Amino acid sequence: MTGSPPAAWRAALGRHIGRTLVTSLYAARSHGVENVPLSGPVIFAANHTGYLDGAVVFGLAPRPAHFLVLASTFELGVGPLLHLTGQIPLQQDRGDRTALSSALGVLQRGGAVGIFPEGGRGRGDLEKAGKGVAWLALQGHAPVVPVACLGTRATGELASSWPRLRSRLVVDFGEPISVTRANGIPGRVRLERAAEEIRVALADHVARASAHHGIELPTDVPPDLWD
């Protein structure tokens, strides 16, 4: 499994660009930034409901991060910008060990990685989540910061839709999770337990943040993802 981590300066440049655009176009605010370690490896694990989630979390995070982004997105018009800002292409359909290796390299040099454990846009309630975030947390010895991204898609809107200009968007960073590294159990069991521990903590944080900020999660799967 090989994959070189993208240069750190790319994420720093991208964060500046992202923050400028997001705060110019929307009433976007971050909360809980004091919960994010400002040095050392860290993983941002966010819920996923709308097309702009990545850009919003990336731009409002208190430190630069390299996000795992579906490889197909790099084939669109935003592809050059994703490359420039050091995002990591992920071949989700077959489990991309190269992408995980690149992300692990970022953590090993003390950087930040962003990931959407749900794997795609949906209700954002973390009913299900993948194991990639747990693998990175265990292998990279990195705390996981749960992130609630709210307001990017309303019920009934398409997965590819953008929120209305100047609409209220919130990114809420929760307290870091240090996954349990129990010894004496098979690695697969350890991974499954860590993944569930992260899923539950993220689901709880998203639910609390949604209630606190008064921004409801969409109640449906986006219409253009039904099939």
From TrEMBL:
Pfam hit, one: Acyltransferase
GO biological process: phosphatidic acid biosynthetic process
GO terms assigned for molecular function: 1-acylglycerol-3-phosphate O-acyltransferase activity
InterPro entries, A to Z: Plipid/glycerol_acylTrfase
Residue intervals of the Phospholipid/glycerol acyltransferase domain: 42-152
Superkingdom: Bacteria
A cellular component term, taken from the record's GO annotations: plasma membrane
Keyword line: Acyltransferase, Transferase
Name under which the protein is recorded: 1-acyl-sn-glycerol-3-phosphate acyltransferase
Protein source organism: Knoellia subterranea KCTC 19937
